[in-house]
User: Fold this.
Amino acid sequence: MPAPRKGPRLASSPAHEKAMLANIARSLFVDDARHAGGKPGRVKTTEARAKAARAIAERMITKAKSGTVHDRRQVLKQIEDRDVVHWLFSNVATRYEDRDGGYTRVVKIGPRKGDGAPMAYLELV
Assistant:
């Protein structure tokens, strides 16, 4: 039996947390595809979720840069949307081919009105 995770959890279960972070990363790439050629993708979420999803998105972009079939399948396993994966591997990877990391940034935008949760934008650089 695995030891319980120390520290706060972003979702009700580890499986939900994993799915939620993958969906935030997917939304980042969908927004980027929607504004093709214009401003880069951006997602508004809580600060903690943005920081956690940043690592997932950075890993996906790194895998997209290598462009192997294995890496494509690994990303497809997380995102589960062929169109988004194709956009990631064809457009986003070529945009960052000369960059060795730091593909995203977290921009703090202040507290949410309803509950005061610190909000942030996760965006592609």
In short: Strands lie at 42-46, 104-111, 118-124. Residues 64 and 89 are 5 Å apart (CA to CA).
